[in-house]
Amino acid sequence: MEQGYHYKKGLWTVEEDKILMDYIRVNGKGRWNHIAKVTGLQRCGKSCRLRWMNYLSPNVKKGDFSEDEDDLIIRLHNLLGNRWSLIAGRVPGRTDNQVKNHWNTHLSKKLGIKKERNKVGNRSKTLSRECRVEVETLIRPPSDQNLMAPSCESSRGGDIIHQANEGSQELVIGVPDAPERETDGFFVDCCSFWSRNDELNQVSPALVELLAGYPLDMDWPDL
DNA sequence: AAGGATCGCAACCGCAAGTTC
DNA sequence: AGAACTTGCGGTTGCGATCCT
């Protein structure tokens, strides 16, 4: 492990950045805990990974967030709640840390939202028939054994469907006027939905409807 | 001008899941 | 199978910069 090493904390210096970048240029990303041993850099693996992911990576976009980015983040947050990595994955060049900070310092104030802890969006919405059919097609398990979406690709989200029954965590897309959600409605696991869209490599009409159709000031019902 | 308050963001922490051996 | 190690996530903190009185 990393026992026996005395790691430095706090802001990174230019020299440390250079050491980390040189290492990654030669060895590529990964094996973060090895970096200190190989380079003598007095930073733990987690710190190295974070520094690369959030700052040094050429994929990281610097500078202010545009209005389009703000709008996208707000809509995604409406759908996904505080699932920053998922949101960031849909905002090109932005990291989960950037999105989280931007939300907490700007967007939540802009929207007059008080900080919530451990809350993931509880959303229900009626979609058009065409949209529902498409979403259902996108998320339906291959076996087609039931209407429940497969569990999240991210293991951490694996309890989403389970929690739905307790009034939950996943995006629930209900059939119009169908109070018995478990029998008449169908559940959409956001992760599966997103991943399927990735596979399709296209912006589906269903996704457009989901993102575009959520009024920001809507009074969302509790589930 | 000074110093206290507030803001914004980089970085840390704890935890959980994935991977390797 | 399970222990050890690695990776990733979201919440939180610390501190420099800026604002305000």
Automatic annotation (TrEMBL):
Stretches assigned to the Myb-like domain: 4-56, 57-107
GO terms assigned for molecular function: DNA binding
Annotated GO biological process: cell differentiation; plant epidermis development
Keyword Cytoplasm: no
Domain HTH myb-type: 8-56, 57-111
Pfam families on file: Myb_DNA-binding
PROSITE patterns noted in UniProt: HTH_MYB, MYB_LIKE
Localization per Swiss-Prot or TrEMBL: Nucleus
Gene Ontology cellular-component annotations: nucleus
Claim: tRNA-binding is one of the keywords in the record: no
Name assigned to this protein: Uncharacterized protein
Organism listed in the record: Protea cynaroides
